[in-house]
Design goal:
Helices cover about 65% and strands about 0% of the residues. It is an all-alpha fold. α11 runs antiparallel to α12, α13 packs antiparallel against α14 and α15 runs antiparallel to α16. The longest helix is centred in the C-terminal third of the chain and has 20 residues.
Length: about 375
């Protein structure tokens, strides 16, 4: 029932009420499940011809309360639209991810939310600890004028008065004069000494001030401060390639056996526009249904591979792809066809066997036909 709500691209017309001439195992049970789980207003919404596969998947995930899938389909929808140019008549692109998606939002939106957060904290600070946190944030965000103002607010009777005055001079000088080669070399050496002597935060701030933000991120990752590193990469003004490098290393960390948070890694790949790697990871995780639906959604928007009309004798579906892409997409649809067969959707399974072409599709049909007369062509 859940799958029937998500996708019916193998049918000429999407329907949750018309099951005539469909080859299902336990079709009466599926009809009862649909009636029990989908109210009429949901059925009417899902049967709209204007909905894409992603939109239907998102509606069904919301109905079933699957929080990870809700995040997955929302993020995929946003970044596919961001990746692809659409006609001005397409109003679906006019939305932004909520700040609650945190590191998954694009860098510009993330930086804006962090600037708002810093301003809010600044307006409500009531002690030196909070002021110090604001100063550190402003330095790393590049808002040095405000950082200098806060440094000069330190009370003369404070133990930090002298160091804050010197820090104000340092930050102001860098802001107005830039960084000479000699100063930059010295500052980097000082930052290294600070980090080596358990002053990671101070060293990172100094590196940020002299424009060595990527080096600061690398130090944070070395000291196992992965989220701090990603925060800095996303919130600061650095090159996209440098930001991607930091996020990629975090993804590798999340996929390690020590951490094993591949669900989060998939979402991060999508947020980087790396749909191929996200699909690859889904396959390795055994998420065959999600991988199949993701590839279908990407094909609908001509991302990853062009949509090709499928016929009974189609064998050119993947002819325009690289060998690596072809191997992955065939694996996705092979596993997807097996999954559909396992849940009793024989017609849907047969359709994706045809997508695979004559040779692989025929072998898969022969495999699935064993001990299953309902699957015979």
């Amino acid at each position: 029932a859940e799958y029937m709500g998500k996708n019916q691209s193998w049918r000429q017309k999407y329907s949750l009420t018309d099951f005539k001439n469909l080859n299902f195992k336990n079709s009466s049970r599926i009809e009862r499940c649909l009636s029990a789980n989908f109210e009429n207003n949901f059925i009417n919404s899902l049967e709209s011809e204007n909905l894409s596969t992603i939109q239907r998947c998102l509606i069904v995930a919301t109905l079933y309360g699957d929080l990870w899938e809700i995040r997955f389909w929302t993020i995929l929808w946003y970044f596919l639209h961001k990746h692809k140019s659409f006609d001005s008549q397409d109003t679906d692109v006019n939305f932004a991810l909520s700040p609650c998606y945190d590191y998954l939002v694009d860098a510009q939106s993330f930086r804006s939310s962090q600037l708002e957060h810093a301003a809010l904290l600044d307006s409500h600070r009531s002690n030196y600890t909070q002021t110090r946190r604001c100063i550190e944030t402003y330095v790393m965000l590049g808002l040095r004028e405000r950082a200098v103002q806060l440094l000069l607010e330190t009370e003369p009777n404070s133990d930090a008065f002298y160091t804050d005055c010197l820090s104000a001079c340092l930050v102001a000088n860098i802001s107005s004069a830039g960084v000479s080669q000699q100063f930059g070399s010295t500052a980097k050496l000082v930052a290294t000494h600070l980090i080596a002597n358990n002053r990671l935060s101070e060293g990172v701030q100094l590196l940020c001030m002299i424009g060595k933000t990527l080096d600061a991120c690398k130090y944070l990752m070395t000291y196992n401060k992965w989220q701090d590193a990603v925060w800095l990469a996303k919130a600061s003004v650095i090159e996209d390639t440098e930001r991607h490098e930091v996020v990629r290393r975090w993804i590798g960390r999340l996929c390690s056996s020590e951490i094993d948070r591949k669900d989060d890694a998939v979402l991060l790949w999508i947020s980087q526009g790396e749909f191929f790697h996200a699909l690859e990871l889904l396959v390795s995780m055994g998420y065959n249904d999600i991988a199949g639906l993701m590839l279908i959604a990407c094909r609908e928007m001509n991302v990853l591979c062009e949509t090709t009309a499928v016929t009974d004798d189609s064998n050119e579906e993947f002819s325009s792809l690289s060998s690596e892409e072809s191997v992955l997409y065939r694996a996705v649809f092979t596993n997807y066809a097996r999954y559909l067969h396992s849940v009793g959707l024989s017609d849907a399974s047969r359709y994706y066997c045809h997508v695979l072409g004559d040779l692989i599709g025929k072998d898969l049909i022969d495999e699935l036909t064993v001990n299953d007369d309902s699957f015979i062509m």
